[in-house]
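re: ur msg from earlier - yeah i can do the adenosine-5'-diphosphate complex, just paste it... oh wait u already did. ok heres what im feeding in:
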Amino acid sequence: MSIAKYISMHFLGITFATAVLMAVFITYFSDVAIDYDLKKQIRRESRYDYLNIGKVNGEVQVSDNFVYEDNEIIKVVLDAEGNLVAGSWPDVSLSELRPVMKIVREIDSGKVHYLVYDRSIVKRDETGRQQVIAYVRSMVDRAELSSGYRALKYASYICAGAIVVVSTILASIFSRHIVEPIKQICQTSEKIGLEQDLSQRIEYDGTFQEIEILAQANNRMLDRLEEMFERQKQFSSDVSHELKTPVAVIMAQCQYARKHIQDKKEFDEAITVIERQVKKTNAIISQFLQLSRLDQNRIHVDLEYVDLRDIVEEVCENEKLNDDKNIRLRLSLEKAEAKVDIGLIMTAVRNLVNNAIKYSEKDGTVDISLKKADGSVVLTVQDHGCGMSEDVKKHIFDRFYRADEARNSEGFGLGLSITARIAQLHSGRVTVESEEKKGSIFRLILPGTL
Ligand code: ADP
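and the outut:
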């Protein structure tokens, strides 16, 4: 069901129920109020009639000032025995009623519903005694007297009905107003899905805060998706680009060998070239696989307490073995325990030390220190090599990024991405400070044990 329909229907239901309740209340309370008012009015009308009625020589006398009909109320004067003295009956059936004091009677004559009120006229006789000399009977056709009230009652019903109609129309207008932007969001999402165009964004400049938040959240999600998609595209094209070169070299060597090589020496040379390229290809593939496993959390992180000193020392010894630039590694290692995956941290440390050696001049020095600070363990790898510009620094953690001056060195621009991801998996981080031609300081910061 659409939201607009849902809101309209519920609103209609609520206003309808309210209108019915209103109608019941109007009917009940207006009947009570009308009754109360009519009875009060009929009583009031005969209040001063005693001034116009007297008894002279045993006869009831009605003065000319007596008003027989006023405000739809008809009055007759009866003597003490209940016989008509003055006035005329609006309905004969009313003449048969015995006078009854203090109450307003409701008499149904068949056609008309009458309210009847009898008021006794009490006066002193010649002996000074109080006695009833006559009755004034006031009669009114209930329908006549209450017609004004009824009109008011019906007007209230019409009002209640009008409220239902108006509020239903307003509800449908408002719900459309709310739903329209949501529809737009849906349409844009649909369009993105169909056209596979992640560059589209949802526009909303309306009044509703929640919808604005929804649109912003969607746009942020699209930003992220687009960025990830672009990165994925870039990544795939970088991988194929990196693999293309060694494969092309291998292919060329194979073709050359088949056509031209006759002696063993040349053959060995070709095999050596092929072997180097295969190693390179293999290295790219394994780094690439490692990064994608780290990205997809497909790697099992096996945490254990270790003294990072041991890891750093072992990495440095191995790196020294492969170093043909005679770099001096100066170590200053404190005991620093941390809960880490040994294999992964070893890879991260190796990448940093390897880079420091790679980007140092021949016979240079690399300072490696390990310290505990504020509950963290900080491994600092400082070289005095080529360093990097601010611009390069911004990109070194991007996949396959290599600064121009690094193009000729071995490496595919994946090492720092892997290192940063490993640090992240350990709730740590990698920072860098660098100055061109002066060197770089990389820090691997991991949470230490207390
Ligand atoms: P690579 O395998 O190319 O070294 P990395 O991801 O480890 O890839 O590094 C990315 C880029 O960052 C390098 O190509 C290089 O330009 C720069 N870089 C990394 N470490 C250093 C360093 N110690 N000194 C200067 N530049 C560095």
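cool cool. Residues 351, 355-356, 359, 383, 385-388, 392, 396, 401-403, 406, 411-417, 440 surround adenosine-5'-diphosphate (CB under 6 Å). ping me if u need the other ligands too
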